[in-house]
Amino acid sequence: MLQEEHLGVKSEERRVKNPIETIMSEDNINNLSSAAEQPVEYNDDNIRHLSDMEHVRTRPGMYIGRLGDGSLPEDGIYVLLKEVLDNSIDEFKMHAGDRIEVDIEDNLRVAVRDYGRGIPQGKLVEAVSVLNTGGKYDSKAFKKSVGLNGVGVKAVNALSSHFEVKSFRDGKVRHLTFEKGILISDKTSKTQDENGTYIYFEPDNTLFKNYSFHGEIVEVMLRNYTYLNSGLTIMYNGRRIKSRNGLEDLLNDNMTNDGLYPIVHIVGEDIEIAFTHANQYGEEYHSFVNGQHTTQGGTHQSAFKEHIAKTIKEFFDKNYEYTDIRNGIVAAIAINVEEPVFESQTKIKLGSTQMAPDGESINKYVGDFLKREVDNYLHIHKEDCADILEQKIKENERERKAMAGVTKLARERAKKANLHNRKLRDCRIHYCDVKNERKEESSIFITEGDSASGSITKSRDVNTQAVFSLRGKPLNCFGLTKKVVYENEEFNLLQAALDIEDGLDTLRYNKVIVATDADVDGMHIRLLIITFFLQFFPDLIKKGHVYVLQTPLFRVRNKKTKIKNKQAIEQAVATSKKSEFVTRYCYSDEERQQAIKDLGPDPEITRFKGLGEISPEEFVHFIGPDMRLEQVTLHKTDQVSKLLEYYMGKNTMERQNFIIDNLVVEEDLPDEELA
Length: 675
Hints:
Elements: H1 4-7, H2 11-14, H3 19-23, H4 26-37, H5 52-58, H6 60-64, H7 76-93, E1 99-105, E2 109-114, H8 124-129, H9 152-158, E3 160-169, E4 172-179, E5 182-190, E6 196-203, H10 215-228, E7 233-236, E8 239-242, H11 247-254, E9 264-268, E10 271-277, E11 284-289, E12 292-293, H12 299-316, H13 322-326, E13 329-335, H14 362-380, H15 382-402, H16 404-419, E14 424-425, E15 443-448, H17 449-459, E16 465-470, H18 483-487, H19 489-498, E17 511-515, H20 520-536, H21 538-542, E18 546-550, E19 554-559, H22 566-574, E20 581-586, H23 589-599, E21 604-607, H24 616-619, E22 628-631, H25 640-648, H26 653-661
Parallel strand pairs: 1-7, 11-13, 15-16, 15-17, 17-18
Antiparallel strand pairs: 1-2, 2-6, 3-4, 3-6, 4-5, 7-8, 9-10, 10-13, 11-12, 14-16, 18-22, 19-20, 19-21
């Protein structure tokens, strides 16, 4: 039952007229009956016509999907950048300019310059501000583009607080300036610059709140453009990005384990594929449609998965299981489709079933291509590819059979766990709920011990935040086979909770958050969990789903009456904290020292030794919208197998010497100088 003080109101203030009493008073009954007799008028005045720019600004989700703040690749600001780049890419495809310059200022403002033909100057205003105006509707050459709806750059204009476009053509430049889609200036002058188009935009921060372009997300996007357009050079803030070998370069740049055989790279009409196998569990795919990175796959990726396994099985003419053939595969596929249909506005999953309206099915087109080209390749490259591939398939088969009995028992256990997983406190909304608008908020906290999980459970959002409680330190699974996932109850229940046994297609939580104490034991548990993911589910990390929760180390607080720093008190009042205390939560010793200075003299300092020491009332602030998360990333340069061998392998003399040489003794020194 809620206490009076928790509600922040006095008991005498809580006595208000019962809503039923209010509604049923005589005066209100008369008012209600008269309202019922007078329906709301619906006439000509109710019909509004929004201008093109107004409509985009009023309904941005219709045009760019989610807004977001730039922390995710699907956020709206990257869609704006993509819409501008797509036009420049189309010029490259028409053999007009092979260089694009992209500059992002302060992670807020974007400038894109291409050296194509330049937008026809007579229609420049219409091209950037009038919907359903474009030059690609009737052109066969552009039929295999993503942006054929005549919206693209107009949406960028409408959703930007400031937008500029310059068209350089034949010694003349026309320069337009817009603010929130409204034309401000229009100038034409002579120029000696090369032909092409320059677009500058600053997203409207009233729509994209607290947004920021993340350099690593932008770079991945630009690199993908170069992989799909061999010979194209993109200059990003002065750095050169170029690919000569298309999807082969993409795999080489993204693989964290060495391929078992040279990458198979085949290019056909409207299709390009690349694949190899690595010593890793699971399947890893990169897929594209008309230059669009389909991060959630779609019909083309499903067709590739089906037919690559079928082709390889038929080549060896043995009864191999599809799962054994695909386990460890790292592959990329890019296709061009006429008038593609995507399953959402963000265009991250292909829904089209045909290569063109009334044309061949995507499944058949991809299947025929793989059957012909991959079969030929395997016949030609028997020793350096086919033999190595078959060896990998046999290894997968042996491992699967070795753990067949264990798997069966574990699945029965998992089935029971689905009914009642005692380690899981589930939430209502999941990442696999395709139609739920909040699915991307879905997260699971992996905690150690009952006290920590108890605090999180009591303070979490039950709609989007689940909690999985570990018994203690999990098993160090480095060097072990996947059999351990099924034999170890804790790992098996975690796998069942995430629903990732057969891949990420059914992943139940967008964010998998490791929440451990900030001490040595907590760090060790964190490392053991990440090792588990790296060993058996690396794609979970590669796709950006794994995070570490940053929790405060210290709480510094003081009574308002004692604090000498008036600014600190004003800030506390501004954030509507009614407490007699001003409190700062500090995530580092530097933050602690600053808080002591701000809240002195003689503030109360509390060190949190573990998550269980933080009360649920306080914990709610650390797992809310502003929670501090550190994403676990995986790059080519990380040399995962070597890192794991060093940190999680046998206790070698090399590691012992490293520990001894880097030992640091902490001393609690008085903070007299800070008081």
